[in-house]
Amino acid sequence: MSLARTNPISLTVYCAQAGDHNALAMAGAKSVGAALSSRLGIPVKIIGTPGSALNADWKTELAAAMPALSELAKHLDSVFRQRQTPVSALSRCAAALATLPVVMRHRPDACVVWFDAHGDLNTPQTSISGYLGGMALAGPSGLWDSGLGNGLPLANIILVGARDLDPAEQALADSGRVAMVPAKGDILAQLRTALGGRAAYVHLDCDVLDPGIVPTDYRVAGGLDLARLRGLCAVLAETEIIGLEIAEFEDSWADSGMPAAPDALLDALEPVIARLGTD
Hints:
This protein is α/β, with parallel strands linked by helices and 279 residues long. The chain has helices at 24-40, 58-81, 96-106, 167-175, 187-195, 226-236, 263-268, 270-275; strands spanning 9-14, 44-47, 85-90, 111-115, 157-160, 179-181, 200-205, 241-247. The chain is globular and about 45 Å long.
């Protein structure tokens, strides 16, 4: 049964730097945005300009990205104020440093369903690599000050498919302060229980999928396939979806240079996409 869309969707592409190891996800965000625009029949708001990957420490990366991230946060705030439903194609997960604090200001009741092979709950003090993207969820959670805000309680986070956690992240998971839905087992029931009927804001890092399905920077074995992702999206569609952001899709395979299209990925996300903007 289809639902009538009562709130218009606002489609945003963030294609600036955000802790990139290469430039492929900046182009990838544009590719995802174009495919969503065609699928939904709506225009795209472009934020940022693609550039070269810096491959620098987190502080340098954050400073370089801050103007575009601040613009992204301001734009998303406007989307919520206009009672629109945000859908975003992001280059890297670090862009969530800007989006999630805005989401929480407008919908503090919602949980953030974070599809990712990693926890992204490191801080500058706990990170082993110093990679900015590995701190993307910790900043909005108030575990460190990114300069872009916080307000996301750990109890409002559901990690889906995480399987490569650093020690500090594993300690958080073991403490039960964040909900975990693994990539294997009865994941549909586990997600339904973790949601508990709450409204959801969905973040998808493409590396939650098994390597080889779509091109991503990180490749971690033991991930979801597209059928399982679609099943999880069907569970999410049982509740209110207040927004969706897709990150880390690279528009070509780094080893071969062959181009890649996001259509199969978006097909798997269709239950969530169809639920967006509906009561």
